[in-house]
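Technical annex, item 7. During the second reporting period the consortium partners agreed on a shared format for inverse folding records so that results from different sites could be compared directly. Each record opens with the tokenized structure and is followed by the designed sequence. A conforming record, contributed by the partner at site C, is shown below for reference.
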């Protein structure tokens, strides 16, 4: 039995049938399975004997899945345990919220056996790599200390040994940095892939009923128009109807009814058009990149990202609704990996929202706003995303693009978003990304994409 098969899994679900089905599947696969029927029981079991991975139901009485996950991620003893949420496909907002709370993945109900096993094995492997990296870190630090002590003991070889130690230490630090960046990038890419699949699923589910409504609106309006014409002809030809009809006509305002019915149908049309635009934006956001860059409309990418983050712009705690200002220039199609650019946009906009949230917790004195401006010069397409938050201190601004650097609380961020954003812009698109910020004045990120690639 290998290390994977000896892994301990905790299933948390208030539904006995779900517990039974999942336990059988995972037990047959060779895992050691434990169960809990509510969040409180799960926290007790994790405190007593932490598992290697937790499958956590969202909707439970008492302490729900989100609250349970928050407590796990707030505890230094349990924050590293990977959590996979279990939820129904229709719970779109819950899935996005779960990923933002620190969950590594989600599994939709009803369960698919192969999918459950694949996702569990994938995240157990990532968890083991993370633990292995930590152990290597300790070993590397021990080796550095040992070499430093040897340098003190062997002063007669100080010059030569110092060069060797510096060279070896640099190699070890470079290797550690590469390992950390690779592992964190895998986690970030997995989250973005899960979010893309989720958004694509929502767009697909919306598209069918919207098409049904849209294709039936024109015939319905035509039928109503014909019925209205027939009624008017009837009233002109029979101005003195029988008593029952006269009483019915006296009871309703027929002219108002027919007029308002037309307005209602127009409102239906507007609503159907809005849903069609939403579905189109979601599909744009979730599109997969090809192996080569393709011409794309940058504005479509920005608009689809704004749609996905729309719920976060609403009033929250002490912060009022964030005003979004767009000033779009006349841009040509840009040859790019739009899916990767969407990842950059979502990182920058999410950071701006977090900054405004923090600003208003500190007692901000102005309305929150994020402005997005696009333009073009002789060499570049330029994208500027600016917030009017508290700004970034100079000492922090120098470090924001470094891997794993973050000023957020534990469990609120990996410190990888801006590092990956710079990699996407500079390495994948041969562009540039800059940060301009002044304390008390807000922060602006400027992206330059060369026209040579458009």
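Designed sequence (site C submission):
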């Amino acid at each position: 039995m290998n290390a994977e098969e000896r892994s301990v899994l905790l299933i948390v679900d208030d539904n006995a049938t779900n517990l039974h089905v999942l336990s059988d599947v995972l037990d047959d696969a060779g895992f050691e399975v434990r169960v809990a029927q509510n969040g409180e029981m799960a926290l007790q079991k994790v405190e007593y004997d932490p598992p290697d991975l937790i499958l956590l139901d969202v909707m439970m009485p008492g302490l729900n899945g989100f609250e349970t996950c928050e407590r796990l991620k707030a505890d230094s003893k349990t924050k590293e345990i990977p959590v996979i949420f279990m939820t129904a496909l229709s719970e779109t907002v819950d899935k996005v919220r779960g990923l933002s709370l620190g969950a590594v993945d989600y599994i939709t109900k009803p369960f698919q056996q192969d999918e459950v096993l694949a996702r569990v094995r994938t995240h157990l492997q990532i968890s083991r790599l993370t633990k292995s990296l930590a152990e290597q870190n300790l070993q590397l630090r021990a080796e550095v200390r040992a070499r430093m002590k040897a340098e003190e003991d062997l002063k007669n070889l100080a010059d030569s040994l110092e060069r060797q130690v510096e060279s070896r230490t640099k190699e070890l630090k470079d290797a550690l940095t590469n390992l950390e960046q690779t592992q964190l990038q895998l986690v970030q890419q997995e989250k973005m892939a899960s979010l893309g699949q989720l958004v694509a699923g929502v767009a697909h589910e919306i598209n069918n009923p919207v098409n049904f409504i849209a294709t039936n609106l024109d015939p319905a309006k035509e039928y109503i128009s014909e019925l209205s014409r027939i009624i008017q002809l009837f009233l002109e030809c029979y101005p003195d109807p029988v008593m029952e009809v006269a009483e019915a006509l006296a009871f309703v305002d027929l002219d108002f009814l027919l007029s308002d019915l037309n307005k209602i149908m127009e409102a239906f049309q507007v609503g159907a058009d809005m849903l069609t635009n939403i579905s189109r934006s979601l599909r744009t956001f979730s599109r997969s990149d090809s192996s080569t860059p393709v011409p794309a409309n940058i504005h479509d990418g920005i608009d689809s990202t704004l749609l996905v983050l729309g719920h976060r712009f609403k009033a929250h705690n002490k912060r009022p609704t964030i005003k979004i200002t767009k000033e779009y220039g006349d841009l040509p199609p840009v040859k790019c990996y739009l899916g990767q650019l969407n990842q950059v946009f979502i990182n920058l906009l999410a950071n701006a929202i977090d900054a405004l949230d923090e600003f208003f917790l500190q007692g901000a004195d102005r309305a929150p706003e994020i402005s997005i401006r696009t333009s073009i010069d002789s060499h570049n397409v330029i994208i500027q995303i600016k917030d009017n938050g508290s700004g970034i201190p100079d000492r922090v601004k120098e470090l924001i693009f470094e891997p794993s650097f973050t000023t957020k609380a534990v469990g609120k961020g990996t410190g990888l978003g801006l590092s990956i954003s710079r990699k996407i812009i500079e390495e994948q698109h041969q562009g540039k990304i800059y940060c301009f910020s002044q304390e008390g004045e807000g922060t602006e990120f400027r992206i330059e994409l060369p026209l040579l690639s458009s």
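The two ends are 54 Å apart (CA to CA). DSSP finds twelve helices and twelve strands in the chain. All partners now use this format for quarterly exchanges.
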